[in-house]
Amino acid sequence: MKEQEFSELVSSIKEAAAIYRGEKAPARVIHFDPPDIKKIRENYNLTQKEFAALLGISTSTLRNWEQGRRTPEGPAMALLRVAQKHPQAVLDSLLNPSA
């Protein structure tokens, strides 16, 4: 590795550490607004218990998401976005997995 590249790498690591410690603000922050989970569930005409079972999560987890105490992450967030935009695909896939 060339000396200049190494110097840039070290500088970048130091900057990341300062951001992590809260000493410096990141250059940009990307926020994703969580979907309205209660509205998605209501569009399916399902109870919390039924929708939680469909997604493979506990009713308490769903309740926490709907009430804003917790936010879905990773695959759960992706599934909810698909459920919002393509409800029939979700129903076809999750209710008839072998079809």
Write the layout of secondary structure elements.
Layout: H1 3-20, H2 37-43, H3 48-55, H4 59-66, H5 74-85, H6 87-95
Helix pairs in contact: 3-4, 5-6
What do these coordinates show?
The protein is an all-alpha fold and 99 residues long. It has 2 domains: 1-30; 37-95, Orthogonal Bundle (434 Repressor (Amino-terminal Domain)). Helices cover 63% and strands 0% of the residues. The protein contains 6 helices and no strands. It is elongated. The relative contact order is 0.10.
Order of helices and strands: HHHHHH
The CATH topology assignment of the largest domain is 434 Repressor (Amino-terminal Domain)
CATH architecture of the largest domain: Orthogonal Bundle
The radius of gyration over CA amounts to: 21 Å
What's the mean pLDDT score? 91
